[in-house]
Specification:
It is an enzyme of class 2 (transferase). InterPro entries: Malate_synth_C_sf (IPR044856), Malate_synth_sf (IPR011076), Malate_synthA (IPR006252), Malate_synthase_TIM (IPR001465), MS_C (IPR048355), MS_N (IPR048356), MS_N_TIM-barrel_dom (IPR046363). By secondary structure, the chain is α/β, with parallel strands linked by helices. The chain has two domains: about 375 residues, Malate synthase, domain 3 (TIM Barrel), CATH 3.20.20; about 120 residues, Malate synthase, domain III (Malate Synthase G, Chain: A, Domain 4, Up-down Bundle). Helix content is about 45%, strand content about 10%. The chain has 19 helices and 14 strands. An eight-stranded parallel β-sheet has the order 5-2-1-12-11-10-9-8. Helix 10 runs parallel beside helix 16 and helix 16 packs across helix 18. The longest helix is centred in the first third of the chain and has 33 residues. It starts with a helix and ends with a helix. It binds acetyl coenzyme *A, ligand LL5AMS7Z and magnesium ion. Ligand LL5AMS7Z binds next to helix 10 and strand 11. The site of magnesium ion has 8 residues, from helix 10.
Amino acid sequence: MDGQDALLTAEALAFLAALHRRFEPERQRRLQARRIRQSTFDAGALPDFRPDTAHIRAADWRVAPLPAALQDRRVEITGPVDPKMVINALNSGAKVYMADFEDSTSPTWANLVAGQQALRGAVAGTLEFTAPNGKHYAPKPFAEQAVLMVRPRGWHLDEKHVLVDGQPMSGSLFDAGLFAFHNARALAAKDRGPFFYLPKLESMEEAQLWNDVLDHVEAELKLPRGQIKATVLIETLPAAFEMEEILYALRDRIAGLNCGRWDYVFSYIKTFRRHRDKVLPERGQVTMTQPFLRAYSELLIQTCHRRGAHAMGGMAAQIPIANDTAANDAALAKVRADKLREVTAGHDGTWVAHPALIPLAQAVFDERMPGAHQKHLTREDVLVTRDDLITPPIGSITRAGFEGNVEVCVRYLAAWLDGNGCVPIHWLMEDAATAEIARAQLWQWLRAGDLYLDDGTPVDETLFERALMKLPSLASTDIPGASRINEAIGLLDRLTHADELEAFLTLPAYRRLD
Ligand SMILES: CC(=O)SCCNC(=O)CCNC(=O)[C@H](O)C(C)(C)COP(=O)(O)OP(=O)(O)OC[C@H]1O[C@@H](n2cnc3c(N)ncnc32)[C@H](O)[C@@H]1OP(=O)(O)O
Ligand SMILES: O=CC(=O)O
Ligand SMILES: [Mg+2]
């Protein structure tokens, strides 16, 4: 692969191998702990705040101060790591750019190598790119660029192209380790981190594992202790019960928590996959104004502000709609309402999926948040109980909602298998987190028994098969991943009929990649 040798030098490989040897056993223990905890939920237990860590929640402590670059995070753009996207995001006018190896990247070896190369070029100031249409891209001067953050893959994913002692290494350690190895000293020299976004954590022990990894990286690369800063996505239901503990485990380097709403909803479904009384309505009805999601975001704000950390909002899925002014206005109105809810509740910043949404999000935050952040809003009025976090909203499943889930799963899986981890489908941004909601719902709905669409049609095998049978014709269109549509149909069929809900759709899909 072009550029691979310059990245995977003997020194870089030795650095990665040391990370693997030191942290792989604990990663496996953490993954096993997830499975054990899930088996208790499957047997009827409910998540709750931990009695064994009550002393952490009760004690008086604050997180370490943050560098100047992390004070004002009002608008953060996220996106995959191909060179054009990296340059567009750095130049976008957002305060922060989260370069994403996770939900929006299909981890083909080519994507990972190109992404690491692009980020290395961005940090070194050498990145440029010419598109096939001849358009040339180069980052603006450093002072005008968004602050770079990197989101490595979650703990569950392996990197099968790098074997250490015959075992695939962790995707998290590969992404974060390789990025730090090549860029940490240059970033530290500019007081720009490195900064990471840490995805899909489920417990304080997983946060502790990240802290140990980042301590090790700092020691190996001779960086000051605490130089690397991390923002943790609270995007699993179990983690919502351990926000204080996660902040505490990373207290010398935590920059904030983020409401990763899409994975959070997925995690809710996964956690309660065997709980008939917790079945959620269709995806479109599970919005952030539903009480259980409002409770989650308000608890996150209160927790962060009490401890001196930023409370970041999340991603509205709407993107600009070309050639239809009315539809575009309606989509932007939804994004605006979402950002207004966030800033009013006390969030210190938000995410956008597309550069055209930056002015809109920025205007909402500028108007309501004159300072760099609003950590002074401690939201003492918020009182969130276990039941507030787990009580499902009332709603329905429409035929369009059911069929939409099937279509999104198939089209997203096809794109992902084809190397594209983020695609617009019906003018919504779809990535691994949004697609997971659709995939997990189908599995749960077909097993729930006695479940009906709002028009009285039983939610059953026939409904699923009919929805699936509409899709093979997509193979002859020009949508992203068209050539993998039939493979995606087969994969969704198997995932939906499996006795157990697969923990992540990217696990079986990754076996088919490359
Ligand atoms: C649940 C979560 O985890 S959310 C976080 C993960 N998801 C994301 O990060 C979403 C990132 N967004 C995207 O990938 C894209 O916006 C998509 C796939 C949704 C839509 O992409 P497109 O259909 O290509 O959008 P569109 O054609 O309008 O793009 C216009 C321009 O904006 C650029 N652009 C679009 N999104 C981004 C982005 N997120 N970052 C940087 N540039 C972007 C495009 O590269 C294109 O540039 P060009 O004019 O130089 O060619
Ligand atoms: O990563 C973000 C999410 O919403 O999931
Ligand atoms: Mg996510």
